[in-house]
Specification:
Distance between the termini: 31 Å
Number of helices: 22
Radius of gyration: 32 Å
Helix content: 55-70%
């Protein structure tokens, strides 16, 4: 149970290391925007370096990604004081962080992400200076309060925590039920109820605490050996926080259960079995765990499906590892756009001659207002160059050529007039670009990665109309510059693109950044969430089995006299248990129906799995009743009750 918390602590440590590398000692991160400051990039770096040295901030800039899949990080020291080693180890499977000196900032843009790796006491003075110079600042601090927020917000983390608590509480119910006779005798002997409750809590706290400490020690040794001792402080603190939350939640539930199930003097006088008071508690736990299991099946299945899809698409993300987009430092002034559209077009056309640029514009079915019938065959539209299809290694057997007349009416109404507007004015027929475009229907086994129009984000379409244009030179400057500003023009190679940008005089207005970084990170997170959902579901299933077993044993004890007489009379086990099984099946079917209705209303996947999980839960409960009745009958015969 606490091993589940160790897994969760490892996930939190990895997430923390990705945003604020632990080996760097970073305590805060900030994104700075100098467009309104009036400072040049070199002036900004000089001022930041001065403040970093004077305030001992240890300011470093996250300047880029390195490695075959761009999953690493480069930290560049801003000031003259350098306290970090040349390489920093990462917690997860990421490449080591490279640390460079301030000379690496010579041709960099000051806008970007920075980390404070030194004394955070000077942060206030840095913030005041940034405010005075009208520098945009967006801070991110990481403490254990963020851990609690993530548990509350992210469903996978919350499910993991709830599963652990429920499993422990279920075991506690079994423990209390086993001590029911002893507690009743002590009440008859005149022992104060408060003393019994305190002793119950102490008796339960000891094994729970020992288990937590054992898991803590084993996990600490593993992290130190597998990842390095530098990650131990954060990991151990996070694990201790999670374990304390679990222990406190469990003990609070035990106190409530102990009070609710307290033996009454009148019941003892009537010689009622001591476990009778635990029957409502056991029933409530059985219902709770049953609901949790069938409620967790659909999210677990959805997380697994998302992680599987991300794993399949991750290969396509890696194909884009060296692809970059352009980010512009522009306001809303149309004059600024007119100034840069010529140089940007030149960058695009020069890159095309080198085979180092591709176009990808995608519009979803909602963007195009496709009808319901059209949506069954088409999921959207993508305007691309052949270079993009080659880049993502499109299987041409997945492409079916179609004519303009075969395109959905909504696609024709949007695309054809737009192509005439986007066409370069060469004095030719306005429909020249429309005729030059080749049209295809894509229907492959894997979704096709394309860039959302205007968003610069990669999206994956299962079925899509492809409009393949022969060359970028057929478009006008307005279209090409707009496509570049929205990252729908994708360039190959960071350094080569930076050189083109510099040669066209755009260094101060354009930042070059990788396209695939967020996608690779998302794939890793989805894998984490799938693992956590699956482990949580297993823990909830174990809790359901334990609660069903405890409830069945209590029912068998309480109904022992009736069951024994019926069994001696030759009544079948099914008829003996009918009065217990029938209400459970009715309530179980009602709960399954309610959760199914909620799932269908949300249009979530996993309906067959919910039915399967509900059937499995009812079958487990029935088997526990049969086993408990058989055990009780044998105990009566052997006089071991």
């Amino acid at each position: 149970m606490f091993a589940l918390m160790a897994v969760l602590a490892a996930v939190f440590t990895d997430l923390r290391d990705r945003s604020l590398p632990l080996e760097s000692g970073a305590s805060a991160a900030v994104t700075l925007e100098f467009s309104e400051s009036g400072l040049s990039d070199q002036e900004a770096f000089a001022e930041l370096g001065r403040l970093s040295d004077e305030l001992n901030l240890g300011l470093v800039m996250v300047t880029g990604d390195v490695g075959a899949d761009q999953s690493g990080q480069v930290l560049t020291v801003v000031g003259e004081r350098r306290t970090l080693p040349a390489r920093l180890v990462r917690f997860g499977d990421l490449p080591d962080v490279q640390v460079r000196g301030p000379e690496a900032l010579e041709h960099s843009i000051a806008d970007g992400h920075y980390l404070i790796t030194g004394d955070e006491a000077g942060r206030v003075e840095l913030q005041e200076w940034l405010t005075q110079r009208q520098v945009g600042q967006f801070w991110k601090s990481d403490g254990h309060g963020a851990t609690l927020r993530m548990i509350a917000i992210e469903g996978a983390f919350a499910a993991c925590f709830v599963a652990t608590v429920v499993l422990l509480v279920t075991v506690a119910v079994y423990w209390l039920a086993a001590r029911a006779r002893q507690r009743a005798l002590r009440v008859l002997a005149g022992t104060a109820p408060s003393r019994i409750v305190v002793e119950d809590i102490i008796g339960l706290t000891a094994p729970i605490t020992l288990s937590a400490l054992a898991v803590h020690a084993v996990a600490a040794v593993y992290v130190a050996v597998a990842h390095g001792s530098g990650f131990l402080p954060y990991f151990m603190t996070t694990l201790a926080l999670l374990q304390l939350l679990v222990v406190f939640a469990t003990l609070a539930a035990v106190v409530v259960l102990s009070v609710v199930s307290w033996p009454k003097t009148a019941a003892l006088a009537r010689r009622e079995p001591a476990v009778r008071r635990y029957r409502p508690v056991a029933t409530a736990m059985k219902v709770l765990t049953f609901v949790l299991v069938i409620s967790a099946v659909a999210p677990a299945y959805g997380a697994l499906r998302a992680a599987t899809a991300a794993a399949d698409e991750q290969a396509q993300w890696r194909l884009l590892a060296d692809q970059v987009g352009l980010t512009f430092r522009l306001g809303a002034n149309e004059g600024e756009f007119n100034e840069i559209k010529g140089p940007v077009t030149s960058v695009a056309l020069r890159a095309e001659r080198d085979g180092a640029v591709s176009l990808s514009h995608a519009w979803s079915a909602d963007d195009l207002n496709l009808s319901g019938q059209e949506r069954q065959s088409y999921g959207g539209l993508a305007l691309v160059t052949q270079r993009w299809l080659d880049l993502i290694e499109t299987d041409h057997t997945d492409l079916t050529a179609v004519s303009v007349g075969d395109l959905p009416q909504a696609v024709r109404s949007f695309l054809l007039p737009s192509l005439e507007i986007w066409q370069r004015d060469t004095g030719a027929d306005p429909g020249e670009l429309v005729e030059a475009v080749s049209y295809y229907r894509f229907d492959g086994e894997l979704a096709l990665p394309v860039v959302g129009s205007g968003s610069g984000q990669l999206v994956f379409f299962d079925r899509v109309v492809l409009a393949v244009v022969p060359e970028l030179g057929m478009f006008n400057e307005d279209f090409l510059a707009s496509s570049a500003t929205s990252s729908n023009l994708i360039f190959t190679g960071l350094e080569a693109t930076q050189q083109l940008v510099a040669e066209e005089g755009l260094t101060g207005a354009v930042r070059v950044q990788y396209m695939a970084e967020d996608g690779l990170l998302l794939a890793q997170f989805l894998a984490y969430f799938a693992w956590l959902r699956g482990i949580s579901l297993a823990a909830m299933l174990a809790a359901m089995v334990i609660s069903a077993a405890v409830g069945s044993v209590i029912s068998a004890v309480l109904d022992n006299r009736r069951d024994y007489q019926l069994r001696l009379a030759g009544t079948s086990a099914v008829r003996i248990l009918a009065n217990r099984l029938a209400p459970e099946v009715a309530v179980g079917l009602a709960l399954v129906a309610a959760i199914l209705a909620l799932t269908l209303w949300r249009d979530s996947p996993g309906t067959p799995l919910i039915i399967t999980a509900g059937s499995l839960g009812l079958a487990i409960s029935a088997l526990c009743h049969f086993a408990a009745r058989r055990w009780m009958f044998s105990a009566v015969i052997n006089r071991t009750v």
